[in-house]
Amino acid sequence: MRKTLICSHDPILIKNIYGLFIDGGFTVEIVDHVSLAIKRVIGGDIGLLVMDAATFGLSVKEAIEIIKNVVPEMPYIVVGPMDLERDFQGSPQNGSMLSNWAHDLEGIRTILRAIKEPETSIKGVKNEA
User: Fold this and answer.
1) Structure pTM?
2) Whose CA is closest to 60, among 76, 44, 47, 40?
3) How far apart, in Å, are the Cα atoms of 35 and each of 40, 89, 103, 125?
4) How is 110-121 classified by DSSP, letter by letter?
């Protein structure tokens, strides 16, 4: 299985979601800056990208647009509060971004179950097992 890349500078968020992925059988790598996440995804061994919506520098919206232009099949999950989700609406290239938005740990668990159970479809997320 290819690696799951978590991009966040928030140690509490990382601590909370890291365990979910490890317990789910995923191999996890962590970066703390959006530009590093883009570089790792383009490098080719990342199978799922998990990004914190509250980032420094380049916004998650801009990062996803860059990644989708270079690696259009890259599945991703954006983790963040509802008010940040509104920033993504109306962007033509982000049709699947809102489908992969998780507001809390239960939202992440729901997406992970969909990854583990291919008959459950979440747009943009593929089973890499």
Assistant:
1) 0.74
2) 76
3) 9, 22, 23, 22
4) HHHHHHHSTTS-
Mind listing the pLDDT tens digit for each residue in 81-101?
655 555 555 443 444 444 566
- Provide the 10 A C-beta neighbour count for residue 75: 22
Distance CA 122, CA 129 (A): 16
Return all residues near 40 (Cβ < 8 A) that are at least 6 apart: 5, 29, 31, 46
Element (H or E) spanning 58, and its range? none
| pLDDT tens figures, 17-42 | 898 888 888 899 999 999 899 999 99
Both tokens of 71, joined, read 């690696």
Give Cβ neighbours of residue 89 (< 8 Å, ≥ 6 apart): 98
Q: Are 45 and 112 in contact, with CB atoms under 8 Å apart?
A: no
CA-closest candidate to residue 75, choices 49, 46, 57: 49
- CA of residue 110 relative to chain centroid, distance: 13
